[in-house]
Amino acid sequence: MGQPTPLPPIPSLPTMSDSLLNTPTPSPHGTQEPLPTPDLMMLREPHVELPMSNPAMDPTHSDLTESIHTPNNMQGDQNMEIPTNPTTLHTPTTEEEAILTHLAMVETNRSIMSQNSPHHRTILPQFMPIPTGSFPKVHMSHSAQIFDHLNTKVLLAWFQVVHPKFLVRVFNHSGKDITERTTVITEHICNSVAIIANYVHQDAAPIQVSPLQPQGGRSAKNYLTCFLVHNTSDETKELILNQHIWSATNITFEALPFACQHPPDLLFCLSGFTTSNVETVHKMVADVWAHEDNRHHINDFFSTSEIVEEELVYKATRDLIRSICIEHLDFKVTGGLSVPCFNIFTTSPTTNAKTWMDLRGFLHILDYPTGLDSCGTAIALHPCPICHSLAHPCGLCPFPEVLLWNGPRVSNRTMANGPCTSRRLRGGRTG
């Protein structure tokens, strides 16, 4: 038998000292504190490592440290659906600038498109249309004539009525007529305004009309012809005031704002001339006002108004004289003989009521002589029984001559107004 095969050598097991020598050394860590007891863990605040002031200099900084899953990330709840993007400045393109420019004017454009032109003519079949060039003007004696002789308590009550509100003056009725037929006329006004209001707004609120009440009641010597209209919209009020005259088959009225008007253009009417030439009368009136003594008086009147500077006072006097306008009225007496009369109009440079009253009173008492055509003096004015204007007497009302006029053509009452039989208005205004 051969020699027995020797056993392979048994590898020696490493000793503990060898294991310690061959174990790789771990990277250094901070000193690990012993785990606290469970009770302390419940009460102790978590330890948060503040980020370095410059993340770029921190070799351990990465996007992972900003993750919401990082244990030490104590940021608030993140919106997982709308990621946060860094704010960047955006320069609008040309197209974007154009869009923004148009959007800035949206409200103005809507307002323009939702309104009628100031020259728009509203046509309602119940009323006559506005004639070419508008209706004739109704001239008053002073700025607040519409409130003349109104009962003080009623006037104060009208003041308390909230806007929008306006006044109407009924054609072809004397104050006494209106006082005796207040209920019927009030109903006609209410129905007419309601037609206009429902044209502007469907299902408009019910219109309210307050009748007048003169000082002294039914025994008053002076009567009124105006009514207060309220409980309407601004759009309805503006439409009615812009057209000014509304004429239906059963009623015709003039609409006026609830305010004092500008001083009236009509000063007075001159009679006594033997000429009907408007240019001659115009030159004569201008010469009388421009006379040195009269001009000084006019300056004094304007200096008591809101016009305080001396140069502006002189300018106001010049403007007054330059604004003179003359209208020839063809008065006739029995037998058809003409008695020429002339309305004197001018534009007031002041809105001061007392100044205008004093000035007109001074100009009213002057004589207006001509070299060859006699001398003119102011005569009394009486309201037209149809439209209540002071610019013409009975028989010379221009409203019945308006094309398609469906209002009153002949006054329903007789009024002694001086000599007049002709209905046709001849001549015109010149300035």
Helix amount: 25-40%
Q: List SSEs in N-to-C order.
A: HHHHHEHHEEHEEEHHHEEHEEE
Could you list the spans in which at least 5 consecutive residues all have pLDDT below 50? 38-45, 414-431
Mean pLDDT rating: 78
Beta-strand content bin: 5-15%
Number of strands: 11
The end-to-end span amounts to 164 Å
- What count of helical segments does DSSP give? 12
Shape label: globular
Strand order of the largest sheet: 9-10-6-8-7-11
Describe the biggest sheet?
6 strands, antiparallel
**Could you say which structural class the secondary elements and strand pairing correspond to?**
alpha+beta
> Which radius of gyration do the C-alpha atoms yield?
47 Å
Region (Disordered): 1-39
Biased composition (Polar residues): 16-30
Biased composition (Pro residues): 1-12
